[in-house]
Amino acid sequence: xxxxxxxxxxxxxxxxxxxxxxxxxxxxxxxxxxxxxxxxxxxxxxxxxxxxxxxxxxxxxxxxxxxxxxxxxxxxxxxxxxxxxxxxxxxxxxxxxxxxxxxxxxxxxxxxxxxxxxxxxxxxxxxxxxxxxxxxxxxxxxxxxxxxxxxxxxxxxxxxxxxxxxxxxxxxxxxxxxxxxxxxxxxxxxxxxxxxxxxxxxxxxxxxxxxxxxxxxxxxxxxxxxxxxxxxxxxxxxxxxxxxxxxxxxxxxxxxxxxxxxxxxxxxxxxxxxxxxxxxxxxxxxxxxxxxxxxxxxxxxxxxxxxxxxxxxxxxxxxxxxxxxxxxxxxxxxxxxxxxxxxxxxxxxxxxxxxxxxxxxxxxxxxxxxxxxxxxxxxxxxxxxxxxxxxxxxxxxxxxxxxxxxxxxxxxxxxxxxxxxxxxxxxxxxxxxxxxxxxxxxxxxxxxxxxxxxxxxxxxxxxxxxxxxx
Length: 470
What we know:
Blueprint: H1 2-9, H2 16-33, H3 42-52, H4 56-73, H5 78-87, E1 91-93, H6 110-135, H7 141-166, H8 177-180, H9 188-205, H10 222-235, H11 239-250, E2 272-276, H12 288-293, E3 302-304, H13 306-310, H14 317-322, E4 323-327, E5 332-336, E6 354-358, H15 359-372, H16 376-389, H17 400-414, H18 421-428, H19 432-435, H20 454-459
Antiparallel strand pairs: 1-3, 2-6, 4-5
Helix pairs in contact: 1-2, 1-4, 2-3, 2-4, 2-6, 4-6, 4-7, 6-7, 7-9, 9-10, 10-11, 10-15, 11-15, 15-16, 15-17, 16-17
């Protein structure tokens, strides 16, 4: 990890001091965020923090390193999407070895542990940035605000996944390892309050456009904070605020729904609000999603379930453009093809970016929020915008119940294998226990939460009790 981080940090920082100080900063926060929480003398930590945040370039490099690690660690790239797709009804395991597909997780599962550790690592790094910037007088005010906003956005983004995967988890907003290693779990209500607080502050701090990143959409701006807030409010059933935040983004002229479906996931697509970019070739990898889902590249192949494939209507251009096929001689399987560029055969140009927030989702958030508020025509308009882009006619749903069902299916075929949308949708709408037993004989209601990693419980007994069913 250190070498990858160092490469990413010094790409735009030409002096050896920058590379050295950033490497040292990451080393320090890694030690503080690891499960053993080895004690480090406070004066050394303070010196490192002072050096990292004593100039604009060093501060920018420190924050940029978080994005590079998020991309390369796969926790927020293919792994989480893949495993949650298997855990729900999007993907099926063709090897018979996936405990996610079988819903037979245990507290000792390595992937579950990795998700937990990686996500908390990014929270710890964000906390380090926030503390460093708040203590610094050397970083210019405009940049300081932008970087503070980015750190708070990243922290909120991480907690969104933690609360939806594990429910009650510790809220960590400091780098004090003594406090963190004994932290108790907070309630979902408290966690969502923290998420909303961070995103509200991020909105006030972040830039309106992407001029701070030379036009690249690989770092969040105000619209990214609004988009994530809209999603959070939707999950909280705060329909009015979900609509307001979605509308803020949908009215922003720097975003447009991409007409060609094959262009949606390109770097800096007009539809993209926030992406993770591959800032260096990674051996020719554009996204790890392509490596994971395209059969010719995957070492552990998965396929789309028949239920998902059958959810597409006749004439839906998403089926033609976002689904690939593989035939083993006797059977044809479908796989995700939203990301199309693979490794192999040299080093292809980096043209695709892992897209976490995009305009298509915002139309569907607002459609659902409007339907829940009985704004039938407004909900139809937003739903039809997405349907028409896919080559489909306007919806026939004309009452709240049928419209909500139509929106749920549209989310399924528009947002499949992106950021765990399907799995989280089944949970937040209370449909998991009625839908998943139809395709998963071993399904149990307690499977709606991941187990707390056993190693973490051993280190911190205050994480008890274990989630039900484990």
